[in-house]
Design a protein that fits this description.
The structure is a single chain. This protein is an alpha/beta fold. It has 30 helices and 13 strands. The chain folds into 4 domains: 139 residues, no CATH class; 82 residues, Threonyl-tRNA Synthetase, Chain A, domain 2 (2-Layer Sandwich); 269 residues, P-loop containing nucleotide triphosphate hydrolases (Rossmann fold); 89 residues, Orthogonal Bundle (Arc Repressor Mutant, subunit A). 48% of the residues lie in helices and 11% in strands. The strands form 2 sheets. Strands 6-5-13-12-11-7-10-9-8 form a 9-stranded mixed sheet. Helix 2 packs across helix 4.
Length: 650
């Protein structure tokens, strides 16, 4: 303690100023020069202060800084030394370790842990670190700018791709009009129930109304007959009940599936509409699961009816004019816009009316523009068949069975579901009935696993439009009001559609269901459709800065060359003989072939058309006879090319 106090007293004036000047010079020097300067300082201080024992470099010049910063605190330091005796014992240890610091001077870090041996040292070591470290931060500042541009350059290509794929913005429900909850009073319903019981009792039928369900437009009364009463007898009294209740139509469901009761459906005095807003806002639609989820409306009990078209898998819609088919199609398309993203479901719309579905042009859900030409409509079905075959080839390569397995195996390359909607199917059948029927048959039989689904709508549900082949492959059907029970049986294979009220009143028969469900279809106006479409278009413009551009697809119809080759393969047996007779007599006319070979006009005309196509005779020129374009030898070579080649070989 005495030695340290003496050392502090000797370093009051000149040594401290000298060391301070040296320290300022060492801040600008390199680490190697610092080592030389520090050694010189140690030697000079040893000569001037006459200290008997040499100390480490840190203890030689660090106390001087404390004197400069706090020149009035030597007494405090001495008091701190007197209070603690442990550092006193460590002083001779420093003397013993003198050669180690002289050898380790270039590193400067080993002396730092020795500082806690004395009280003045911890206070002064920060000043040493501040003197030595300024050279290091200069080096770190020089090193950091080099990797900094590399980090920013690496981040630039990574940041843009994340915002580039814009998320599809679903339109808000505020674009649709909400309905008003107005229900008819139960007193009116109870009066009707009592009237039904009294009317049946007057005809000798004992039954009692046990329950009733109020829907938007229809109320169903559940009637439980007593033992020994035939159900058919209640069905036969439908006209009497309608007259007693003053109702336009009455539908009797005998019995109700799953219940031991007969259902009598009577129209409400005040029919309520079912806005699409209320159906889309329901929990059944918001939390429903399905690839092509569609909202249809509300059933008799007021429950929302939602179905998945991917499980349908195809849908047939039929009904008379004004029954609600077009509104139902608009509701289906709007439901898809509100539930599915463009990369999940693609639509292909065929509109023979031209003005019914053209409003949807420009939405991202369309695979191509709305098709209004019937020839292109046939080409659309051809494209769907080719797409189906191509998808099955991909499934075979990926070793999966359907589109769900493929999308799970390839989450980065998911296939979208394709929904083809034909607004007026009868017009398409009038253009090319055979070809369209074959294409639809192939699609309805095989396209379900490929994710391609059909919706066919027609006003004329006759047998020549909805053939047995088409009806057998489309299990899900919707029947609106029709004129007769015969048309109802063509659509649903059962009656009941002739008793519907119209304006969205429908019977829905789902695939696999044993009975039909009566639904009041959801209503959406043309203004609401336009507002939803405009919103989707504007969102696409904001995200992509340009209107939606559809990828071009081939909608061409196969040429007739294939059919002609098929016809040539099935040539008439009389063709060689008829061609020789025409060349011999120079008379190329249909009537001459009829008289000569005693055949009908159809067969003779087909023979003449075949000879014209083969180049034997020229085209017809009115009343003038046809020209003969081929010789007899050329005809033999044309009809028997194999024999001609064999003769040449011989």
């Amino acid at each position: 303690a005495a030695r340290s106090a003496a050392r502090l007293e000797t370093l009051d004036d000149k040594p401290t100023e000298f060391i301070y000047k040296k320290n300022t010079e060492t801040q600008e020097a390199t680490p190697e020069e610092e080592v030389e300067i520090l050694t010189e300082e140690v030697e000079e201080t040893d000569n001037k202060t006459e200290i008997r024992e040499d100390t480490p470099i840190s203890s030689a010049y660090e106390p001087s800084e404390e004197d400069i910063s706090n020149p009035e605190e030597p007494s405090d330091i001495e008091e701190g030394i007197d209070d603690k005796e442990e550092p006193v014992e460590s002083v001779p240890e420093e003397g013993e370790e003198i050669p180690l610091p002289e050898e380790e001077i270039p590193e400067e870090e080993p002396p730092l842990p020795e500082a806690p041996t004395e009280e003045p040292m911890p206070v002064e070591e920060p000043s040493l670190s501040q003197e030595v470290e300024p050279t290091q931060p200069v080096q770190t500042v020089v090193e950091n700018p080099a990797p900094a541009p590399n980090v920013s350059a690496s981040e630039k290509p990574v940041v843009p791709p994340t915002p580039l794929p814009p998320a599809y913005q679903f339109p808000p429900l505020s674009l649709l009009h909400a309905g008003t909850n107005q229900a008819s009073g139960q007193s009116d319903v109870r009066q009707k129930a009592a009237l039904i019981e009294s009317t049946l009792h007057s005809f000798g039928v004992k039954a009692k109304v046990v329950h009733f369900s109020m829907g938007p437009t229809v109320t169903r009364f559940e009637l439980k007959p007593e033992m020994g009463v035939r159900v058919s007898k209640i069905e036969g009294l439908s006209n009497e009940l309608a007259m007693a209740l003053e109702a336009t139509h009455i539908r009797i469901e005998a019995p109700i599936p799953g219940k031991s009761a007969v259902g009598i459906e009577i129209p409400n005095t005040k029919a309520l509409s079912v806005p699409l807003h209320d159906v889309l806002a329901s929990d059944e639609f918001q939390h429903g699961k399905g690839h092509i989820l569609v909202a249809l409306g509300k059933d008799i009990t007021g429950k929302t009816v939602v179905t998945d078209l991917a499980k349908a898998p195809h849908l047939l819609i039929a009904g008379s004019t004004g029954s609600g088919k077009s509104v139902c199609i608009n509701s289906i398309i709007t439901s898809i816009i509100y539930h599915s993203r463009p990369d999940e479901v693609k639509l292909m719309l065929i509109d023979p009316k031209v003005v019914e579905l053209s409003v949807y042009n420009g939405i991202p859900h369309l695979r191509t523009e709305v098709v209004t030409d019937m020839r292109k409509a046939q080409g659309t079905l051809n494209w769907a068949v080719r797409e189906m075959e191509a998808r099955y080839q991909l499934f075979a390569g990926a070793k999966v069975r359907n589109i769900e397995g493929y999308n799970k195996a390839n989450p980065d390359k998911k296939m979208p579901y394709i929904l083809i909607i034909v607004d007026e199917f009868a017009d398409l059948m009038n253009v090319a009935a055979k070809e369209v029927e074959v294409l639809i048959q192939r699609l309805t039989q095989k396209a379900r696993a490929a994710g391609i689904h059909l919706i066919l709508a027609t006003q004329r549900p006759s047998a020549d439009v909805i053939t047995g082949v088409i009806k057998s492959n489309i299990p899900s059907r919707i029947a609106f009001m029709v004129e007769s029970g015969l048309n109802s049986r063509i659509i649903l294979d059962e009656g009941g559609a002739e008793s519907l009220l119209g304006k969205g009143d429908m019977l829905f028969k789902q695939a696999g269901a044993l009975s039909t469900v009566r639904i009041q279809g959801a209503f959406i106006s043309d203004e609401e459709v336009e507002s939803v479409v405009e919103y989707v278009k504007n969102e696409c413009l904001k995200q992509e800065q340009q209107p939606v551009v559809y990828e071009p697809i081939d909608l061409s119809v196969p040429d007739k060359e294939e059919t002609q080759e098929h016809m040539e393969e099935e040539q008439d047996d009389l063709l060689p003989e008829a061609a020789e007779w025409v060349l011999d007599t120079k008379r190329a006319s249909v009537s001459a072939l009829q008289r000569r070979f005693r055949i009908g006009y159809t067969r003779a005309g087909r023979l003449m058309d075949t000879m014209e196509r083969m180049g034997i005779v020229g085209p017809a020129e009115g009343a003038k006879p046809r020209d003969i374009l081929m010789s007899k030898a050329a005809l033999q070579a044309l009809l028997n090319p194999a024999e001609e080649k064999s003769e040449e070989n011989q």
